[in-house]
Amino acid sequence: MKNVFNLTSAERSAIIVISILIFFLSIFQFLKGIPFKNQKSSPEFLALVSGFSNDSFPKKRIDSLNHYSKNTRKVEYAIVKIDLNHCDTSDIKSIPMFGSARAKKVIEYRDQLGGFHSVQQLKEIYILQELESDFLNQYFFVQNNDYQKIKINSISYADLKNHPYFDAYLAKQVIKYREKTGPISSLEELQKATNAYASLIEKMRPYISFD
Question: Measured between alpha carbons, how far is 91 from 96 in angstroms, rounded to an integer?
Fold first, then answer.
């Protein structure tokens, strides 16, 4: 190429670079003046966006939850009480918070007592002590006098010591008193014969028969 302007090679390169920059700047300025159509800026989109203000979305969500809760039907179940002296482990396991272990303990304790005279005796079982009295009364009941009496003047030592309210010492004291003094006729006399605490004598009260 003929060097018309008598320019050096470096000067010619600089002119070329500047020309290219001017060309792209011209294109950029031209494009800035053209309004591009944006689908998201359509009136429908703008109307949709304007409906979601900072406080409207939570309100709509709360209203939706309230509507759901009002229209959700609450299912209630009738509670069927269980007779403590005429139930098995399957019956007991149908009660909330009663599994196989607890059901088994209830039956074992019932057999040792000769039957429950009160629902509250369930709290004498170690693994049931944490349960509230109101809860137990809600699911269990006991019929009056539906338990075996202890014939204190004729029961054997072996049978008496196996009752939950007696032990080997108390049973031995009863037998010894009967042999020495004769039949026991009252709870006061039973306490005298055994030296048992008054609270224990009260537990025995429903079970003791002096016949």
Answer: 11
C-alpha dist (Å) from residue 95 to 37, 81, 151: 69, 9, 34
Q: What is the pLDDT of residues 82-103, one digit of tens each?
A: 999 999 999 999 999 999 999 9
Host domain of residue 168: 150-209
In angstroms, rounded to a whole number, what is the distance separating the alpha carbons of residues 144 and 164? Answer: 20
Q: How many residues does the chain have?
A: 211
Does 174 reside within a domain? yes
In the chain, how many domains are there?
A: 2
Q: Using DSSP, state whether 108 is helix, strand or coil.
A: helix
Structure tokens at 102: 């607890």
Backbone dihedral angles phi then psi of residue 4, each to the nearest 5 degrees: -70, -45
> pTM of whole model > 0.85?
no
Q: Which amino acid is at 8?
A: T
